[in-house]
């Protein structure tokens, strides 16, 4: 029978030694696991992915369509994009390309010219007419330079009367689609004498007609009845024109629905009649 040996202090039992060996083996395995190459595989894969994004994608911009061949300098014609520092620092130019700038400048100049032309038409209803009364002269003997030719190219009036009548004509034309028809405007003293000999009492004495001052017109028969005449009666006064009282039924003169005068001019310097 083997001799029984009591555990003495400092002496390990077989079970304790085994436990110590297991502990040592576990520690060794842990150290090996920490230094094993497979621990870096995920990190290496991540680095490869980032490298692909950084290097490969820019190269694909220069790949020729269809065959995947890299074409050196394919994007050389394109303007380089600004760097982050340049963009943030305001170093990037904001001016448009020269071609676009020239196109915009040309378009703007054309538009301005058209606007000026339109404004000119609004301010000047009768092109070439200053719209001023100029010197008075004598009845039936006005200077041709003081008269303005109307839109019909034939009849004339004093500048201020012509300009106001042209404005009336624009409104009339917008309503009816055609110019106001005028049969007679300024008359010379000689023309008034001939008319007086032909018309007798229907014509004013030479030197006493407002036609001789360039302040009166006679409308064509087409404008003295119907809707045209109604419109003229309602709107002519807005532009300073009227069928004078003496020409109305019951007036002091002959009944003349066709005779219209520029009231302001007549009262200031023409032959004005109250009835």
Secondary structure layout plus pairing:
Layout: H1 14-35, H2 41-60, H3 84-89, H4 98-123, E1 147-149, E2 156-158, H5 159-176, E3 182-184, H6 189-199, E4 216-219, H7 226-235, E5 241-242, E6 259-262, H8 263-269
Antiparallel strand pairs: 1-2, 3-4, 4-6, 5-6
Task: Give a quick rundown of the structure.
The chain has 275 residues and is of the alpha+beta class.
Please provide a written account of the structure.
This protein is an alpha+beta fold. Helices cover 44% and strands 7% of the residues. It contains 8 helices and 6 strands. It has helices at residues 14-35, 41-60, 84-89, 98-123, 159-176, 189-199, 226-235, 263-269; strands at residues 147-149, 156-158, 182-184, 216-219, 241-242, 259-262. It has a 4-stranded antiparallel sheet. A two-stranded antiparallel sheet has the order 1-2. A hairpin with a 6-residue loop joins strand 1 and strand 2 (156-158). It starts with 13 loop residues before the first helix and ends in a 6-residue tail after the last helix. Mean pLDDT is 76; it is low at 1-11, 62-78 and 117-121.
Given as residue ranges, the uncertain stretches (5+ residues, pLDDT < 50) are 1-11, 62-78, 117-121
Biggest sheet layout: 4 strands, antiparallel
Give average pLDDT, whole number.
76
- How large, in whole angstroms, is the Cα Rg? 52 Å
Structure summary, number of beta strands: 6
Q: Please state the structural category.
A: alpha+beta
Question: Fraction of residues in helices?
Answer: 40-55%
Tell me, briefly, the overall form. Answer: rod-shaped
Percentage of residues in DSSP E strands: 5-15%
Instruction: Give the ordered list of helices and strands.
Output: HHHHEEHEHEHEEH
Number of helices: 8
Report the end-to-end length measured between terminal Cα atoms. Answer: 170 Å
Strands in their spatial order, largest beta sheet: 3-4-6-5
């Amino acid at each position: 029978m083997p001799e029984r040996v009591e555990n003495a202090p400092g002496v390990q039992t077989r079970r304790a030694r085994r436990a110590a060996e297991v502990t040592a083996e576990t520690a060794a395995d842990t150290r090996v696991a920490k230094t094993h190459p497979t621990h870096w595989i995920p990190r290496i894969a991540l680095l490869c992915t980032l490298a692909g994004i950084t290097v490969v994608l820019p190269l694909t911009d220069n790949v020729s369509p269809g065959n995947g061949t890299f074409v050196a300098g394919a994007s050389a014609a394109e303007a380089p994009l600004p760097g982050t520092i340049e963009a943030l620092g305001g170093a990037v130019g904001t001016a448009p390309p020269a071609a676009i700038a020239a196109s915009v400048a040309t378009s703007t100049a054309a538009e301005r010219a058209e606007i000026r032309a339109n404004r000119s038409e609004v301010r000047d209803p009768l092109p070439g007419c200053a719209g001023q009364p100029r010197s008075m002269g004598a009845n039936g003997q006005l200077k041709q330079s003081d008269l303005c030719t109307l839109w019909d190219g034939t009849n004339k009036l004093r500048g201020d009367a012509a300009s106001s009548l042209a404005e009336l004509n624009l409104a009339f034309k917008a309503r009816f689609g055609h110019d106001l028809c005028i049969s007679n405007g300024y008359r010379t003293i000689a023309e008034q004498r001939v008319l007086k000999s032909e018309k007798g009492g229907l014509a004013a004495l030479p030197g006493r007609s407002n036609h001789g001052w360039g302040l009166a017109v006679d409308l064509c028969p087409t404008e003295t009845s119907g809707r045209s005449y109604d419109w003229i009666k309602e709107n002519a006064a807005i532009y300073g024109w009227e069928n004078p009282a003496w020409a109305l039924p019951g007036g002091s003169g002959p009944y003349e629905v066709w005779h219209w005068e520029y009231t302001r001019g007549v009262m200031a310097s023409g032959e004005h009649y109250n009835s």
